[in-house]
Design brief:
Layout: E1 5-6, E2 35-36, E3 46-47, E4 54-55, E5 58-64, E6 67-75, E7 80-84, E8 106-111, H1 127-140, E9 146-151, H2 154-164, E10 169-175, H3 183-188, H4 199-207, H5 224-239, E11 250-255, H6 274-302, E12 307-310, H7 324-336
Parallel strand pairs: 7-8, 7-9, 9-10, 10-11, 11-12
Antiparallel strand pairs: 1-2, 3-4, 5-6, 6-8
Length: about 325
């Protein structure tokens, strides 16, 4: 299983507190959950819009809101697009995606505090502080107005930035990012019969103050300071409530599995037998699909002029892999309109 996979859900429910096994193979998402991120350390080569030239992003640092933040500049001219990554991903996650826009836009990507080469202070991981980091970052680069593109947890930052600073946002694109990640919705997803514990479960259990977190054994745990940042970040994610009603900018949201009629194929454990598959399918029809529909309907209800693209049986990183071309095409069409 690639490390670009979705987070697994916490194993805790009031009636399910025992038999926790230290399996980290399957990490998936449900009801707007998060994902286990990669740790790219070098700039990758990425294709330009016509896929005939190769370029690498310019790397730089800006001191913003009291912290040093790392950013990438893929070049281009025209209006600026700011790319924001998901949990623990750096801006390098967009090395293949962002250059597809530089024929018409100036593409830059920010790595948030606590990740990659950006500073890792003890605090400041709440959504408001992270949004202020973005504002100060743009001010430092003398960028007045941007279109925002964000993946996964970056959706919180997109919504809050567009709400607080509407005059600085042209358009907003949510890449599997328009979810309201409530603790209640999270716990409601735990009945999935294929659920398995792992490192991210423990982080999220700690973020929710569940003492059972210590029952999950994690091999090769990150250093204590890095672990604290991950827990603080997840605590902030659970605390944030999506409210799109004050987003004035035109918005586009991509969803990976909300249109699925069947249990998502890539959520199944690699060794799933016929019995597991049957139980998963039944759960999806009875509960899972409805849970995944809720955030789509919230977005539709609160942003009447918003646009929604529901992919079929796609992976969380919708801008990479098999769905990349479709996401590029629809995003370009939206931004150029």
């Amino acid at each position: 299983m690639s490390d670009r996979v979705l987070f697994s859900r916490v194993i805790f429910v009031s009636k399910v507190r025992t038999s926790l096994k230290a399996s980290v193979k399957r990490l998936l998402t449900l009801a707007g959950a998060l994902f286990l991120a990669v740790y790219p350390s070098e700039t990758r080569l990425a294709a330009s819009p016509d896929s005939t030239n190769i370029l690498s992003a310019k790397s730089g640092f800006v001191t913003a809101n009291g912290v040093k933040l790392h950013y990438l500049d893929w070049g281009g001219s025209g209006d600026t697009i700011l790319f924001l990554a998901g949990v623990n991903d750096t801006a390098h996650i967009y090395d293949d995606f962002a250059p597809r826009f530089i024929d018409r836009f100036h593409a830059i990507g920010l790595t948030r505090r606590g990740v990659g080469e950006s500073d890792k202070p003890v605090g400041g991981y709440d959504t408001i502080t992270r949004v202020e980091d973005i504002r100060h970052f743009l001010d430092a680069l003398s960028i007045r107005k941007v279109s925002l593109i964000g993946h996964s947890m970056a959706g919180d930052e997109l919504t809050l930035f567009a709400t607080r600073y509407p005059d600085r946002v042209m358009k907003v694109v949510y890449l599997e990012a328009a979810y309201d990640r409530t603790p209640e919705g999270y716990i409601a997803s735990l009945t999935d019969p294929t659920n398995q514990p792992g490192m991210m479960q423990r982080i999220r259990m700690e973020a929710l103050g569940m003492p059972e977190a210590s029952n999950i054994r994690v091999e090769n745990m990150p250093p204590r300071d890095q672990w604290a940042i991950l827990v603080a970040t997840h605590r902030a994610i659970f605390a944030f409530r999506q409210d799109y009603t004050k987003v004035q900018a035109l918005a586009l949201a991509f969803y990976s599995v909300t249109a699925n009629r069947h249990y998502p194929s890539h959520w199944l454990p690699e060794n799933a037998d016929a019995g597991v598959r049957a139980r998963a399918e039944e759960w999806w029809k009875e509960k899972g699909h409805a849970l995944m529909r809720e955030p789509v309907e919230q977005f539709r209800r609160e942003i009447p002029r918003g646009e929604i693209v529901e992919l079929n049986d796609a992976k969380h990183y919708v801008f990479l892999g098999d769905t990349a071309e479709e996401v590029v095409a629809k995003t370009r069409e939206f931004l150029l309109r």
